[in-house]
Amino acid sequence: MAAGRFTQRLLLRRYRHHRRSRQELPKDGDPDNGMVSENDAAEWIMEVVDSLPISQPVIMLGYSFGAYLSSCFVRKYPTRVDRQVLMAPACVVAPISKWWLFRAILFGALSSCTPRGGRVEEALGRWFFGTMGCDYDNFKAKMGYPELFEATQRLGAAQTKMQPLELDANALASMNGLCPTLLMIGKKESVIDPKVAVANAKRAEMQVVEYEDAGHIFYCENPRQQSVDDVKAFLSML
């Protein structure tokens, strides 16, 4: 899945030996091409999966809101998925913090009326990334791709009609039974309560990896290779 020249170049360079599929994200606000429900999300992902030249079940890896989208697909099309990795999920295993949500909405509102590239935008970025327990300068340095970071910032004010939901104990257990799932989360996660998330995930018998001194963007706050190794270990043990 890719959109934009930068992402296309990145995929071509880093994954030149893998097969790729380019799909447009459903346009928010377009009644004919919007994603407003779990069913919409599952159907859109199915379009992406069907466009791939493979027949075997896929591995779903979702980060933040993407983890929720992954759960939507797994629950509707479990036979199409082999395994699932939830990285710092927005909801799914715990409700979103109302205090963090307020700050996210405030950040989006302020970002939408702030000139690009100025000190105000820089200050907003430091503040918002700080709400997720992330060192702004460290994150920028580890990102490694200035164009991708700039594109991420421009999405700060984006809105979506679809709101992520917390799954109840039965739904979590059923999902993990249908598709073995790994939860990766920082112990200083602020978008959801990490203790609640870990407890719910373990109750559903999911695999869990926790990261010390890390928040929502744990893969940049800890050695990135550790996250990669944890995913590889999960995929190789099943």
TrEMBL record:
<dbReference type="InterPro" id="IPR000073">
    <property type="entry name" value="AB_hydrolase_1"/>
</dbReference>
<dbReference type="InterPro" id="IPR029058">
    <property type="entry name" value="AB_hydrolase_fold"/>
</dbReference>
<feature type="domain" description="AB hydrolase-1">
    <location>
        <begin position="40"/>
        <end position="223"/>
    </location>
</feature>
<protein>
    <recommendedName>
        <fullName>AB hydrolase-1 domain-containing protein</fullName>
    </recommendedName>
</protein>
<dbReference type="InterPro" id="IPR050266">
    <property type="entry name" value="AB_hydrolase_sf"/>
</dbReference>
<dbReference type="Pfam" id="PF00561">
    <property type="entry name" value="Abhydrolase_1"/>
</dbReference>
<dbReference type="GO" id="GO:0016020">
    <property type="term" value="C:membrane"/>
</dbReference>
